[in-house]
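Entry:
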Amino acid sequence: MSLRYTGTATDFYVAPPATADVVNLAIDLGRPLLVEGEPGCGKTQLAYSIAAELGLGPVVKISVKSNSRAQDLLYRLNALARLQDAQRHDVQQARHVYPYLSLGPLGEVIHKRERRVVLIDEVDKADIDFPNDLLDVLDTFSFQVDDLPPEEERLSLAQPGGFGRTVQGDRHQPPVVVITSNREKRLPEPFLRRCLYVRVSFPRTEEELREIVRRNTHDTLPQLVDAVLNAAVASFLRVRQLAVGNTQKPPTTSELIDWVRIVHWRGQSPEDLAADPYSPPYWETMFKTMGDLDAYQALVAAKAGKA
């Protein structure tokens, strides 16, 4: 239990105390951390924050796709290369399977017994078999290489970085596994039972938002004036409040950071940002679809009509 995450020690991310507490519980229990929340609120960045604060090296990121297979995270067999080599008389290694086996990103971390942060990003994009096939691996941090024949195990282990049919990680110092989901599909209950859950919510106070912007713009916007930042955050919150519940993707912290950069680069003053409460300069850049732009414009027009 030596690793302690505070959520405030990096220059790019701020995690609430409740979120940091769940992260520490997941580390102590050796459980995967399942992270959900609005797109753009920092689910992925949480994994990078954990790795940076705890000094666990670069994040091992696995981007899940609709055709992703759990086995590919563990190991791969290049059967096509073996078939091609078998047709050549000068290549003798095609008689064996082990030269064509390689470990996947999660399998490599388990095999090397490294304390790394493994990010399995957007697990809900894959078929339901994907999380189900990871159940035992995430419980024991070990897996079987079924494609490696028993008679070739000794030959495989003799290779640099070689591995046998059973790849066993360090259960006392397992990797920190962070799994994000946008709930596009319902995740299986046995998988959920093995995870600790945390919801990344939109920040509750203006000060939290200002701090997030400062940490993410200190290199690119060193001349950002506090008065502009304060006015931008206040204006952004008015736009978001009107958009929530009425648009497909209301603006979140990701859009705020980009929008603050835009208004700073365009020389907008606090007065410019406060002139129109619900349509500040470049407000269109906060939305990502034509439908949301039209819906928000209609909301603003309706609000103006009632004034």
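The longest strand covers residues 33-37.
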